[in-house]
């Protein structure tokens, strides 16, 4: 991969990381962890968008998300 392409890829991951909820004390996420967390966050937002519940109600009624690190960092 060329230096320019690698630089663009790293910038894209940095941008993606900036949109994922995280705890302030967490170290920088690896690329694979960034992708996994982004997928989980998208799944969470998609599920929330298909309900009439508030964020807190959705979390309380969804066992998958009630103990999720992603949700606890929001």
UniProtKB/TrEMBL annotation:
Domain of life: Eukaryota
GO biological process, any: developmental process
Record-annotated BHLH domain positions: 1-45
Segments traversing the membrane: none
SUPFAM superfamilies reported in the protein's UniProt record: HLH, helix-loop-helix DNA-binding domain (SSF47459)
GO molecular-function terms, A-Z: DNA-binding transcription factor activity, RNA polymerase II-specific; protein dimerization activity; RNA polymerase II transcription regulatory region sequence-specific DNA binding
Entry protein name: BHLH domain-containing protein
Organism name: Adineta steineri
